Amino acid sequence: MSEKITRRASLAGAVALPFALSGNAPAAEVGLDAVARGRGMRFGSALSARAQGASMDNPAYAALLRADCGLLVAENEMKWQHLRPAPGKFDFAAFDRIMAWGTANHMAVRGHNLLWQRRKWMPVWLEKYDFGARPARAAADILVEHITTVTKRYGKRIESYDVVNEAVTPETGALEETALSQAMGGTEATLDLAFRTAHAQAPHAELVYNDYMSWEPGNAAHRAGVLRLLEGFRRRGVPVHALGVQSHIVTAGPDTSGSARGYERNWRQFLDAVTGMGYRLLITELDVRDNGLPADPAVRDRGVADYARRYLDVMFSYPQLRDVVAWGLCDRFSWIGPFEPRPDKAARRPCPYDADYRAKPLRAAIAAAFARAPARGT
Ligand code: G3I
Q1: Distance between CA atoms of residues 292 and 137, nearest Å
Q2: Rounded to the nearest whole angstrom, what is the distance from the C-alpha of residue 76 to the centroid of ligand 1?
Q3: Which of 6, 89, 182, 370 measures 20 to 30 Å from 314, CA to CA?
Q4: Tell me: the pLDDT tens digits for 142-180?
Q5: Residue whose CA is at the smallest distance from ligand 1 atom 30
Q6: Do the beta carbons of residue 37 and residue 5 sit within 8 Å?
C-alpha cells in the first residue's frame, strides 16, 4: 500500500464519519478511495469554489472530500463560461483555488472541460463573436489559444481532461453545432482540433470524450451517435483515449433490480463496442435521479442504492474502467434538485450523503461494488 493511501485511510478514520456499512462492505473507517485503491481503482467527486456550497471552504463538505476522495473535478470552474469572461481574457482565480486545495491534500484533479459542444453552455460573447473575413482561421485560433493556455498553466498537475463534452444530440445522434464550430466549417474538424491541440500541449494526459448517453431506455440514438463519433476519431487518427460515461443514472420505479436486468444487454453491447475500439472508460459524473420511487426517504434510498450497485457491478466488470467520480457527495448541493425537481416536490436524494452530511445506503453500495470489483493490474 502506498504512503498516500495509508494516509487517506487514516484521515478517513480521523474524521469519524457516521458510516452505516453492512454485508460485504468494508470496515466503516475506510474511505471510498481507499477501498477503490485496493482494487487498482480510484474514487473522487466534483466540488465547487463557492464558499457556501459543495466546496473545500465548507468544512463539513471538505471533511467528506478528505475522507472519501483521491480525485477531484471542478463542477463548473474550468468551463469556458467561468474561465473566459470576455474575448482574450482568462480568469483562473476560482479554478486555481481548487487546484491548490487538491494539491495540498494529495488528490489528483481532472480537467472538465476544454470544449463544451453546446451553445447554451459556451460564453454568450462567443456565440455573438464576429469571426471576420477568415472565420475558420479565427475560430481555430480562439480554440487553440484556449486549450493551449489552460493545459500549459496546469502542466503535469492535470493528468486527465474531458477535452470535449457532450457533442452528440441525444434525440437524433447528430453532432451539435456552436458558433465556434460553424465558423470552423464543421463540428468534426472542431472536435478533432480540440483533441490534437490538447495532445500536443499535454502529451502526458489522458484525453477523454465525455457524454451522458446512459443505459436507460430512450438513449439508443444518443449511444449510436457517440459510437459513430468514436469510430470517426479512430478512422481519422485523432488522439482520444477514453470515453467518459457521465452516469447520471435514473430509476424508473420500485423494481430497480428488474430495471437494471432489463437494461444490461444493450448497455454491454455499447460498452463492448467502445472498448473494442481500444477506448478506456471512466465514470465521470455519478449520481442517481430517484424517479418513480416513493417519497419515503428510507424506501427511496434503498432503491437508489440497489440500482446504483447493479449499475456499478456491470461497469466494474470492464477492466478498462479505473476512475469513478461522483457529481457531488452531498444531496444538499446537487444540481438535480434545481434542474429537475421531483413531481411530488420531495427533495432529491441523488448523492452518497444526505443534506446533513450523513452517509446513505448509496455510499455503502459504492463501497460494496468496489470491494467486489475484479482487481485491476498496475
Ligand atoms: O454562479 C452563478 C451565481 O452567481 C448565480 O446567482 C446563479 C443563479 O442561477 O447561477 C450561478 O451559476 C450556476 C452554476 O451552475 C453554479 O451553481 C449556473 O446558473 C448554472 O447553470 C450552473 O449549472 C451547472 C451546469 O453544469 C451548467 O454549467 C451545474 O452546476 C453543473 O452541475 C452542471 O454539470 C454538468 C456537467 O458539467 C456536464 N454534464 C452534465 C452535468 C449536469 O448538468
Answers
A1: 49
A2: 6
A3: 6
A4: 999 999 999 999 999 999 999 999 999 999 999 999 999
A5: 335
A6: yes
Residue 160 DSSP symbol = E
For residue 219, cis peptide bond before it (omega within 30 degrees of 0)? no
**pTM: predicted TM-score of the whole model, two decimal places:** 0.93
* Closest-CA residue to 317 (of 368, 257, 241, 370): 370
What integer pLDDT is reported at residue 377 of this predicted model? Answer: 83
| 175 Cα distance to chain centroid | 21
- Report residue 195 as a C-alpha cell: 483533441
Domain boundaries, the chain: 2-372
- 333/47 Cα distance (integer angstroms): 10
* C-alpha of residue 330 to centroid of ligand 1, in Å: 16
How many angstroms is it from 248 CA to the middle of ligand 1?
15
For ligand 1, residues with CB inside 6 Å are 75-76, 79, 121, 165, 212, 246, 285, 335
Ligand 1: which atom is nearest the Cα of residue 81?
Answer: 28
Whether the Cβ atoms of residue 242 and residue 279 lie closer than 8 Å to each other: yes
Spacing of C-alpha 127 from chain mean position? 25
Bond preceding residue 113 cis, omega within 30 of 0: yes
* CATH 3.40.50.10260 assigned to 2-372: no
Q: Is the CB of residue 232 less than 8 Å from the CB of residue 188? A: yes
Q: How far is residue 288's CA from residue 349's CA, in Å, rounded to a whole number?
A: 8
Closest C-alpha residue for ligand 1 atom 29: 335
